[in-house]
Amino acid sequence: MPATDPVGVPNVHKLERALLVNRNELFRLGSAILFIVVVMLFVMSRGPAGMHGTLLVAAAMIGGYMALNIGANDVANNVGPAVGSHAITLAGAIVIAAIFEAGGALIAGGDVVGTIKNGIINPALIQDGTTFIWVMIGALLAAALWLNVATALGAPVSTTHAIVGGVLGAGIAAGGWGIANWSEVARIAASWVISPVLGGLIAAGFLYLIKRTITYQPDILLAARRMVPLLIAIMAWAFVTYLAMKGLKHIWKVGIVTAGGIGLVAAAAAFALVRVRIARVFSSLPTGKDGMNEMFTVPLVFAAALLSFAHGANDVANAVGPLAAINDAVVSGGVATKAHIPIWVMLVGAAGISIGLALYGPKLIRTVGSEITELDKARAFCIALSAAITVIIASQLGLPVSSTHIAVGGVFGVGFLREYLKVNYARMLEEIRSHHQGEDSATVDAFLARFDAATVSEKTELLRELKTKATAVELHKKERKGLRNINRIELVKRSLLLRIAAAWLITVPATAVVAAMIYFMLRGAMLP
């Protein structure tokens, strides 16, 4: 059939589009495989000979695979809101996150890591170094596989919980049920609720503060000029305190008082700088909410960078911790609760996270940034601020939290607050129309215009006066039902909420079961 045939041309175009999609997917897959092969060749060139050397090579490849999946899944929480609010482009976010994730891992990732994550199993009950290596390989591979599945499903999950589940399952397979520290497992399970609820409440609280003090004021831009420097000062305090306490804890240990004091100095400096900056550009800003949102652009870029740095410093251990433990077991032949992290191990983690983010991160970045609920820069600012403040509060209260759950909980928190406010405002308008039944439309429109321009306190007073009028009309049953139907306004995607919640709930048990199966397969293959 000729290429110009009207029947054949559309089919050719469909084939070309399909090939383009497949080519991009093959490029990503090929790049990921190439990275793992490079890791394999590097470790083979410097590792010991024999069975332990083979196990170290296999563990390094799995560690690289795990790092790729952390980059693809977990990093989206740090930059997703900034991308969704258009404070930064997707490409810019990937570059910033890759640089600061790797920088956090290499600069502040530490040189020693706990081999048994969070003390969830007792290493004394593991028989020997070889068994310990099998346990760590099983845990690492199970966690990596689950992260891969979660990323494919578009569900951001906790990599810490994934590795915890892997260690728990492989540990039980090796040492029986008594090896597990069930009180610690219960604390981790509690974080499934604590993290998203706390993150959501704090993010929603800051968004409500912004609405009351800025967006509900008659002159939004003037109100923003007064409040935004204070809000950014709070962010500076939270992020500097968070970075001092958590991001730099491996190289500089400080308490909450010292970290908070350093944060106050940063907050004062940020307040002064932002006031000067806003005063300089104030006349050129757009009016209304657009002008207010522009004031949050630069802080969101800094927030994405600092969250990525702290994540790289803290969570790279999820990729390289078990690998470092295996390397230590190969070198020493024993089981250690602490293991030195060689620079090559840290490089595998840092490079893998950065490459995984670049190859597969955009899918989860879009999910967190735009698919759950619509984000503008003010909402994204509240989510980023919530991430830092929640970790600070949880650390002082001794509560187990997940950075992934906090960030996603923050997104849901601002979305549900928007729903509540929209529904409440719509109900107010319906009540006003109901109390003006029988009056001409000009009178109703005039009252609505006055109500819309009023401040929050003035709106409350107007409604109170309206309800106390003797001419108030009793609502009929049908009208009351209509008011209840306003509650059907939905600004949060429920299907994503259910999908993510289900993924969170099964992360630990799923990785535990898979890790136990992998351990038994390894033991059956390795034992004579």
Describe this structure in words.
It is built from 18 helices and 2 strands. The model is unreliable at 1-5 (pLDDT under 50). It has a two-stranded antiparallel ribbon with strand order 1-2. Helix 4 packs across helix 11, helix 5 (129-153) runs antiparallel to helix 6 and helix 11 (297-332) runs antiparallel to helix 12 (343-371). By secondary structure, it is mainly alpha-helical. It has one domain (47-419, 491-526). It has helices at residues 8-46, 50-73, 76-84, 90-108, 129-153, 159-175, 182-215, 220-247, 256-281, 289-294, 297-332, 343-371, 377-397, 403-435, 441-453, 456-468, 477-485, 494-526, and strands spanning 112-114, 338-340. The termini are far apart.
Can you give keywords for this protein?
18 helices; mainly alpha; disordered N terminus; two-stranded antiparallel ribbon
List the helices and strands and how they pair.
Blueprint: H1 8-46, H2 50-73, H3 76-84, H4 90-108, E1 112-114, H5 129-153, H6 159-175, H7 182-215, H8 220-247, H9 256-281, H10 289-294, H11 297-332, E2 338-340, H12 343-371, H13 377-397, H14 403-435, H15 441-453, H16 456-468, H17 477-485, H18 494-526
Antiparallel strand pairs: 1-2
Helix pairs in contact: 1-2, 1-12, 2-5, 2-11, 2-12, 3-4, 3-12, 3-13, 4-11, 4-12, 5-6, 5-11, 5-18, 6-18, 7-8, 7-13, 7-14, 8-9, 8-11, 8-13, 11-12, 11-13, 13-14
In short:
This protein has 528 residues and is mainly α. Helix content is 78%, strand content 1%.
Q: Major beta sheet, specifics?
A: 2 strands, antiparallel
Distance between the termini: 63 Å
Low-pLDDT runs of 5+ residues are: 1-5
Oligomer: single chain
Main β-sheet, spatial strand arrangement: 1-2
Counting DSSP E segments of at least 2 residues, the number of strands comes to 2
Summed up, the helix count is 18
H-E string: HHHHEHHHHHHHEHHHHHHH
Into which percentage range does the β-strand content fall? under 5%
- Structural class by SSE content: mainly alpha
Helix proportion range: over 70%
The shape is elongated
